[in-house]
Specification:
Layout lengths: L2 E4 L5 E3 L2 E3 L1 E5 L6 H19 L1 E4 L7 H11 L14 E3 L2 E3 L9 E4 L11 E8 L7 E5 H11 L1 H10 L1 E7 L12 H5 L4 H11 L4 E4 L5 E8 L2 E4 L2 E4 L13 E5 L7 H14 L1 E3 L6 E5 L3 E5 L7 E7 L1
Parallel strand pairs: 4-5
Antiparallel strand pairs: 1-4, 2-3, 5-18, 6-7, 7-20, 8-19, 9-18, 9-20, 10-17, 10-19, 11-13, 11-16, 12-13, 14-15
Pfam families: TauD
Organism: Acorus calamus
Keywords: Oxidoreductase
């Protein structure tokens, strides 16, 4: 066995199952890519059971080393669709995002609003932040279970009539802010081509390009809760992607407002059940994107986390 089971201070137990599962090298100098290639069937079972695996203590010193680890699992590469600019660092390896480190990123499933979303995400720590900057993870089924316990009537209404997500994006990046433009999202500024790409890539029910240059994307009515492999997942988050929720409007399928009580309960459950992973240089975190939400805590630069996504 190339791995030794370990622990991290932040880990938690859900239903008697440790989260995340932490694996260390069995021998000094163990090559993670080679170890993965030998054990990938076993590791797939571990991921299914635990939802996330942290590989710590291996000599993964570069984006190229990380690329070899990703390739060793043998899963197909997937292209990124989203309004975040990612810089290619190596084969199948990209920078995480461009949102400034002094801002947090809310919990979400990667590319949840697209027609095709990744099943797995790899994170690699090239350089940890000197303060903060943790990547947070939480089992999405736990969110559903706790919401059903605390907000049963709300959950029944969600199941009955769904939610509608209205997201309004500018055409161009607004100076001094993160690029949330539809031009960045769709990689074109031509409206005809943009409409085509919306139909091809996004799961929205409609899009309207306005005279002021903005575009309004409407998703739903849709149930934000889905089921994967027998586990429920709160797949479409109700908090928005970042702290700046300008342009995001979420309501029930009949147009009525979501109560503040429900939103506060949702936020509280996330905070009470998440793991804030404190990065160490060389860490590789593998996450099941269908069952686990992830987020980022605010921190201080420099911080370099790379990502790779798989079908």
């Amino acid at each position: 066995m190339a791995f030794v089971e370990g622990k991290v201070e932040e880990e938690r137990l859900f239903g008697g199952v440790v989260f995340p599962k932490t694996l260390f090298p069995s021998n000094a100098g163990e090559d993670l890519a080679i170890a993965v290639a030998k054990e990938r069937n076993h590791l797939s079972k571990v991921l299914k059971e635990h939802g996330a695996i942290l590989f710590r203590g291996f000599d993964v010193g570069s984006a190229e080393d990380f690329s070899r680890v990703v390739e060793a699992f043998g899963w197909d590469e997937m292209g990124y669709v989203g309004a975040t600019t990612r810089v290619k660092m190596a084969n199948r390896v990209f920078s995480a995002n461009e949102i400034p480190l002094d801002q947090s990123i809310n919990f979400h499933h990667e590319m949840a609003l697209t027609k095709e979303y990744p099943s797995k995400i790899f994170f690699y720590c090239f350089e940890p932040a000197p303060l903060g900057g943790e990547t947070s993870i939480v089992p999405s089924n736990v969110i559903v279970e706790k919401m059903e316990e605390q907000m049963l009537k709300f959950m029944e209404k969600v199941s009955d009539i769904g939610l509608i997500f209205h997201i309004t994006r500018p055409k161009e990046k607004i100076q001094g802010s993160v690029d949330n433009s539809w031009k960045c999202l769709l990689k074109t500024d031509d409206v005809v081509e943009a409409e085509k790409r919306v139909r091809e890539k996004l799961s929205c029910t409609s899009v309207k390009f306005n005279n002021d240059g903005t575009a309004k994307f409407t998703y739903g009515p849709v149930n934000p809760v889905r089921e994967f492999g027998g586990k429920k997942a709160w797949f479409l988050p109700i908090l928005g992607y970042s702290e700046n929720k300008k342009g995001v409007d979420i309501s029930f399928g009949d147009g009525s407002d979501i109560s503040r009580e429900a939103i506060d309960a949702y936020k509280g459950i996330l905070e009470e059940n998440c793991v804030d992973l404190k990065w160490k240089k060389g860490d590789v975190l593998l996450v099941d994107n269908l069952t686990i939400q992830h987020a980022r805590r605010a921190g201080r630069p420099p911080r370099a986390i790379y990502v790779s996504i798989c079908k």
